[in-house]
Write a structure and sequence with these properties.
single chain, mainly alpha, two-stranded antiparallel sheet, 8 helices
């Protein structure tokens, strides 16, 4: 029996904490690494820094440590992604790899649905153009942007 004054578990804790988010992000970036058009959005040779940023962001969003904000400030997702040409095709590629990564976790159905709902809403919110032209910086889809401008 739990203590009456005990704080409820966060979503972060309910799904397994840090290890779960590390697994999610690792699976996602395995997909990104093999997707040449989407990979172009990540100009760093090593996807490790991008993976670390995404992991810290997701952990904080879901009730884990606030390391992301302490090290990078407010997430400002739209601003950080504004330099990229994110059209519906880019969004859908991102969602394809995130869905596969989430499937690898095999979370309880309610947790899966909760996380997937957020990821879909976030991906749709990042779309900043309906002009076709590839993935990459707005106005110059084939030229990479410094990685620090992304999440």
């Amino acid at each position: 029996m739990s203590e009456p004054d005990a704080a409820p578990l966060s979503f972060y804790d309910e799904i397994g904490g840090h290890d779960t988010f590390v697994r999610l992000v690792a699976a996602f970036y395995r997909g990104v690494a093999a997707d040449d058009p989407l990979r172009a959005m990540y100009p760093e040779e090593d996807l490790g820094p991008a993976a670390e940023r995404l992991c810290l962001f997701l952990e904080q969003y879901w009730g884990g440590p606030t390391t992301y904000s302490r090290s990078r400030g407010h997430p400002r997702l739209r601003m950080r992604h504004a330099a990229f040409h994110i059209d519906p095709a880019a969004r859908d590629r991102w969602l394809t790899h995130m869905r596969a990564a989430l499937d690898e976790l095999a979370l309880a159905p309610l947790h899966d649905a909760t996380m997937w709902d957020y990821l879909q809403r976030a991906a749709y919110a990042m779309v900043n153009t309906f002009e076709p032209g590839g993935i990459g910086p707005a106005g110059s889809p084939s030229t990479p942007v410094r990685a620090s401008s992304s999440l």
